[in-house]
Specification:
The complex is a heterodimer of chains A (607) and B (295).
Chain A (H helix, E strand, L loop, with lengths): L1 E2 H21 L1 H24 L3 E2 L15 H18 L2 H4 L6 H20 L3 H18 L7 H28 L4 H7 L2 H19 L7 H8 L2 H11 L1 H13 L6 E2 L4 E2 H22 L4 H22 L2 H32 L15 H14 L6 H15 L3 H26 L15 H19 L5 H11 L5 E3 L2 E3 L4 E2 L1 H21 L4 E2 L26 H4 L8 H23 L4 H20 L1
Parallel strand pairs in A: 1-2
Antiparallel strand pairs in A: 3-4, 5-6, 6-7
Chain B lengths: L1 H32 L9 H11 L3 E2 L2 H19 L16 H21 L3 H32 L4 H11 L2 H4 L1 H15 L10 H4 L9 H26 L6 H19 L7 H24 L2
Chain lengths: 607, 295
């Protein structure tokens, strides 16, 4: 048996140990983060899937209560795995931080918080750990490029936290208890709708759904590379967890949208998800910073997860969970690959880079596999989840939502190719001629993630049991399978066969390629230029404004940014007002306050 | 499974032979329209074998690997394609989404190889090809989604069977047929949607750096991908075929019509392509879908 309380406490303690050891040697402290997160992952995976986690709480104050569920185990194992994989990068980045010891402490505290969120039994526990994650991860962000992103993150997290707090107070007043299962099952009528809405706001804020999308590119673009990877693959998935609580565990009775067979509120959430997919995709296409591009892409993928949960039948929900899994693997790998590039070159701007494939071929292959999965192309995990989600979209006649999903799906080919073409391929720029492949320790997690992505795409049935556990627990049917085949609404998919056929095709062509005459090797500058004489690599490298003709068509910013800006200005004005009247040493203000207080006293005397 | 894979390879070879011959005949047809004599019908084969037998250049491992991945991916896609309702390598698994997404592997391989050559014209060509794909693929997917929902299956053979009983989708979904025809022109890269090849402008775009066996293999890839695209169109909208002769006739008519139509047009600019598809074709497709599904 594994005591959950001890896991959380040990992780926190591990953070303190890492903090102290970092004072002696930065790398040793970072090694502690690898060990601790690895231990957390392997313990949770071993005991969690073996159904032998002990949920009793004795040491922590007794408002904290844990409950072991299949849902919690799925998320906790997945996210702690992401933390474990990313932690391999910590020793290398430790030199770059101003406070490496604080980084190690906060990294493990965030992990403890995330585990606590997924296993919480009542809403108070959920909220406390949720806030622990917000407050610790907030201080991880400014170790990258600046503190502003951290403020943005905090503001948007606050919106989510307050929404959740209102929902909790609302339920605690109504039921006298905050136990998650009792409360969510007991909600009816308007109360159910209110809690549904509030919890979804919290979920949207974490997942970066449309109106809250702004923080993702800011934070993921500016945070240190390991933190970006953890956010995209791990912390963001807390939003998906809360979406499951809201959309699957509460089912507010309301009017049905007959044509698509969904409750109206689900359709509204579906529309938000669709907008998230489209805006995320379109914004990702025009990013020049590879990390911002991936950030928008993870927002768009959050949209797919929400879309799956709105449809709410067993195929869609399985697809949603599989997408959480596949996207966590792929986006972590992609962020780590870009992390290697920034580690070696100190920039993630696509227009400044080129020809990285010649310096770091393994990183390139990792990135390639990750984007194939993110674009939903076989034989990768992302294909399976997209296939399932499309099945459900078609089954429910969701014409408009499906159109959005198709736009997002084809658009993802565009944005994932941008770093591939301009950052990894293209001319070999002379200013990066000394750049080397990543160190071995950084390659290990990337290779593991890539292999897992491939296995998830070729033999998805190996990973389905853990999702099936959740489906049974939530009261849904499990996905129909036979052998390695998956059976959907309108067809059967045999991913292993697809992979085998693809392998055959490549093999046949490889043999043909070898038979025909050998080619002569020439340099990259030895290309057709239409009679021009060009001697510098930069001039022959097409990387800036990659999709210029397409970007021209939607040059304007999405309108929410203006609203946020005007809110920001209002808040600043309020701040200036408060500062002028309360925190000042101007004599006139002091006289004003003395007069005002005297008047107040006198006024009380008169009455 | 081994037999299936062998049958699939046979289908890919058949598709290659068919499309190369049809394309050769079409060169003749177009020549006669333009009052020329035209090359012999087997000219495409000559071009490919010439490419394969010559010694070309390579720009590094990704340049080679991309070509192998591209042709391999396309051959794999073709292996799933049913020819008639009886001739299919993997019956029951000819899922529509496999064609869309496995085709993308091949396209990705070619794009990778082209960008790996270091020639900016190739990168621009790839950018245009992807942008154009972003335009034509979405309306096509919406229409096919409608077909899948109406027939209740995404298997091409079963969609053919459904059309045999209920009439071709060409007649029952006229708007969808228009949308798919225009998308087909985009897929085949025929004028007015040949922006990404644009020989006079981009020096053949993605193909600019290729020669020798790379070019030969990419020609093979192009022929097989045309075979897949035209076959999809025939199966989805023209009721497929029960006999091989019927299939050959429909295939020839569709390809020739698309080819002849393309010679009447100039070339769109790439942003015009996107605007055209999103302004006119996508609304038509959604209208058709809503009309059929939400009645």
């Amino acid at each position: 048996m594994l005591n959950l309380e001890l896991v959380v406490l040990a992780t926190l303690l591990g953070g303190v140990v890492a903090y102290l050891l970092s004072m002696i040697n930065k790398r040793v402290g970072s090694a502690v983060t690898i060990l601790v997160s690895g231990a957390v992952f392997s313990l949770l995976a071993y005991y969690g899937f073996g159904n032998s986690i002990d949920q009793t709480v004795e040491l922590i104050p007794n408002f904290v209560m844990f409950k072991v569920t299949a849902l919690g185990t799925f998320f906790a194992v997945l996210v702690s795995f992401v933390f474990f994989m990313v932690s391999f990068f910590n020793p290398f980045f430790a030199e770059r931080y101003k406070y490496p010891n604080a980084f190690n402490l906060l990294y493990l505290m965030t992990l403890a918080g995330v585990v606590g969120v997924f296993y919480a039994s009542n809403f108070i526990t959920l909220f406390v750990f949720f806030e622990l994650v917000v407050w610790t991860s907030m201080f991880l962000i400014p170790m990258g490029k600046g503190t502003k992103a951290s403020i943005t993150y905090f503001v948007f997290s606050t919106v989510g936290s307050f929404a959740m707090l209102y929902a909790i107070i609302f339920m605690a007043v109504g039921f006298g208890t905050t136990d998650i299962d009792t409360v969510l099952a007991g909600l009816t009528g308007t109360a159910a709708l209110i809690v549904y809405g509030l919890l979804l706001v919290a979920s949207f804020a974490k997942l970066g759904a449309y109106p809250f999308m702004v923080w993702l590119p800011k934070v993921l673009g500016n945070a240190p590379d390991p933190v970006s990877a953890v956010f995209s693959g791990g912390i963001e998935k807390m939003g998906a967890f809360i979406a499951v609580l809201a959309m699957i565990k509460i089912s507010p009775a309301s009017a049905m949208f007959e044509a698509v067979g969904l409750p109206v509120q689900n359709y509204i959430v579906g529309v938000i998800a669709a907008v998230t997919i489209i805006v995320g995709t379109m914004m990702a296409i025009r990013q020049d910073d590879a990390k911002k591009l991936l950030a928008y892409s993870s927002a768009a993928n959050g949209g797919y997860i929400l879309l799956a949960f709105t449809i709410g039948n067993s195929v869609a929900i399985t697809g949603g969970f599989f997408h959480i899994f596949a996207h966590a693997l792929a986006s972590t790998a992609a962020f780590l690959a870009i992390g290697v590039v920034t580690y070696r070159t100190k920039t993630s701007k696509i227009s400044e880079l080129g020809g990285m494939i010649h310096h770091m071929p393994i990183t390139y292959v990792v990135y390639l596999a990750a984007i194939i999965s993110m674009a939903g192309i076989p034989p990768m995990g992302g294909f399976i989840s997209k296939w399932l989600i499309f099945q459900a979209l078609i089954q429910n006649n969701l014409v408009f939502l499906a159109t959005a999903a198709f736009i997002g799906s084809i658009g993802s080919f565009l944005y994932v190719f941008r770093p591939l073409a301009a950052l990894f391929l293209g001319q070999k720029l002379p200013k990066y001629k000394d750049v080397k492949e990543a160190p071995l320790l950084m390659l290990i997690p990337m290779i593991i993630l890539t292999l897992l992505s491939v296995v998830a795409g070729v033999f998805p049935t190996l990973f389905l049991p853990m999702i099936n556990n959740i489906m049974t627990e939530l009261g849904f049917q499990t996905l129909m399978t036979s052998g390695f085949q998956i059976i959907g609404f309108n067809g059967t998919l045999d991913p292993a066969l697809v992979a085998a056929v693809f392998g055959t095709g490549v093999l046949v062509v490889f043999i043909l390629f070898m038979i025909f005459p050998k080619s002569r090797k020439v340099g990259l500058m030895d290309t057709y230029t239409g009679g021009e004489f060009i001697y510098t690599e930069e001039l022959l490298h097409y990387s800036a404004d990659f999709y210029a003709p397409l970007e021209r068509l939607y040059r304007k910013e999405p309108f929410v940014n203006k609203i946020y800006d005007s809110i920001r200005i209002k808040v600043e004005e309020l701040g200036a007002f408060v500062r002028y009247f309360f925190f000042t040493n101007k004599p006139e203000v002091t006289v004003f306050w003395i007069v005002a207080i005297l008047l107040f006293i006198v006024w009380g005397d008169i009455i | 499974m081994i037999l299936g894979i062998l049958a699939g390879l046979g289908i890919a070879l058949f598709g290659f032979t068919l499309q190369s011959s049809v394309a050769g005949i079409n060169r003749k047809v177009v020549a006669r329209v333009q009052k020329r004599y035209g090359p012999p019908w087997y000219q495409e084969f000559l071009d490919i074998f010439k490419g394969l037998s010559k010694r070309g250049v390579t720009h590094g491992w990704i340049f080679d690997f991309g070509v192998i991945m591209a042709v391999g991916g396309i051959i794999a896609t073709a292996m799933f394609m049913p020819i008639t309702s009886n001739i299919a390598a993997f019956s029951g698994l000819d899922n529509f989404f496999i064609f869309v997404y496995l085709l993308a592997v091949g396209m990705l391989g070619m794009a990778m190889s082209a960008s790996g050559s270091g020639n900016p014209l190739a990168s621009i060509g790839v950018m245009r090809a992807l942008t154009q794909m972003f335009a034509y693929e979405v309306p096509f997917l919406v229409i096919v989604m409608t077909i899948i929902k109406v027939t209740g299956t995404s298997s091409l053979v079963e969609i053919m069977a459904y059309q045999g009983q209920n009439g071709w989708f060409m007649w029952t979904m006229p708007l969808g047929f228009v949308v798919a025809s225009i998308s087909l022109l985009g897929m085949l890269g025929k004028k007015p949607f040949e922006t990404f090849i644009a020989p006079a402008e981009l020096a053949s775009g993605p193909m600019v750096e290729y020669g020798g066996k790379h070019l030969g293999l990419l020609f093979i890839m192009m022929e097989i991908s045309h075979f897949i695209e035209v076959s999809l169109f025939v199966h989805l909208f023209l009721g497929g075929a029960t006999t091989i002769v019927g299939y050959l006739i429909k295939y020839f008519l569709v390809y020739t019509a698309a080819n002849l139509y393309s010679y009447l047009n100039g070339r769109f600019k790439i942003d015009q392509v996107v605007v055209f598809f999103y302004k006119w074709i996508l609304p038509l497709a959604v209208l058709q879908a809503v009309w059929v599904l939400w009645r």
